[in-house]
Amino acid sequence: QKEVEQNSGPLSVPEGAIASLNCTYSDRGSQSFFWYRQYSGKSPELIMSIYSNGDKEDGRFTAQLNKASQYVSLLIRDSQPSDSATYLCAVNISPRGGKLIFGQGTELSVKP
Amino acid sequence: GAVVSQHPSWVICKSGTSVKIECRSLDFQATTMFWYRQFPKQSLMLMATSNEGSKATYEQGVEKDKFLINHASLTLSTLTVTSAHPEDSSFYICSARPGRDYGYTFGSGTRLTVV
Question: What is the pLDDT of residue A97?
Answer without folding.
Answer: 60
